[in-house]
Amino acid sequence: MKKALMPLVMVVLLALVPYVAVQFAGLDFLFGVIVPYVAIVVFIGGFVYRVVDWARSPVPFRIPTTCGQEKSLDWIKQNRLESPSNFWQAAARVLSEVFFFRSLFRNTRAELHNGPKLAYGSSKWLWLAGLAFHWSMLVIVLRHYRFFIAKVPGFVQLMENVDGFLDVTLPALYLTDVVIVAAVTFLVVRRFQDAKVRLISLPADYFPLFMIFAIAVVGIFMRYITKVDVMSVKDLMINLVHFNLTLPEGIGALFYVHLFLVCVLAMYFPFSKLVHMGGIFMSPTRNLSNNSREKRHVNPWNPDIKIRTYAEYEDEFREKMKKANLPVEKK
Ligand code: HEM
After folding, report:
1. Is the pTM here over 0.90, yes or no?
2. Residue to mutate (ligand 1; options 210, 234, 258; most atoms within 8 A of CB)
């Protein structure tokens, strides 16, 4: 619990800073213009830095993790996803991981029962909550595109209609709002409840969860409860996109809390575990094909070693070897 307390206090403080600054000190420009620009620069710069750093790391050998039959003789059936032997099969495996979290689906639970007896069981809740969280977040972020462009594109409208199809509140309740809050709650509770996961959880595991939870809850407040002037928000965002530094009047302070938390998350992103978003594509254990038997991979920075065969060695020392009564191959 102690490891969760500090990130929790930090998120509360981070939420209070823009609220107080905008409401009582009139610092709208700082939080509405300067901080978002700084955040986007740090986010893009940091992300590019991490990806370039990974891309420059040498990967001399094939090290994909496999758990299926590799490509072999014609009559032995290859498992193309678990042991991909070419680029397209490896790409299919990475994409199935990205979109469906395949390896997490196979996650099992190990428990020690009386006896002592080790028992393995199915464990699908983490997979389900993880998938629900990531998909709902993606849909929410894509739906937000409407704040950045004058004419709302068709795909955003379609998403809004499908997401709000229940049509139970005014404005219509988005399913993704319910799902993201439920899924993040599950992911936090899981870290508290399971003793093994609690032990290995760090403040850096709780912080992003609390941040995303706070961002979603503040967003939900803005949409369904306290309301903010959405047209002014849209004006501000379109201005920012066009490098026009004028700040529309009358956006509620709550919006600045939402925006500031998003900015902090964006700046934190490249330097935290959240960067797995890019890392998954760069991971050699995932993105390489298992073709070591088909193709010889030579470490490119091996020193150029001059080798000498035994025959050459014997040619040089044959007479001396004979004198020393050592056996020779060529008489
Ligand atoms: C990590 C990024 C973000 C997340 C996860 C997020 C999450 C949410 C959520 C869950 C809602 C509730 C309503 C809905 O689902 O649309 C919401 C509303 C809102 N968000 Fe965000 N948000 C993010 C970034 C932003 C940004 C960059 C802006 C700047 C324009 C923004 C502005 C708003 C506004 C104005 C609302 C109220 C919408 C309404 O009244 O219909 N959000 N946000």
Report:
1. no
2. 258
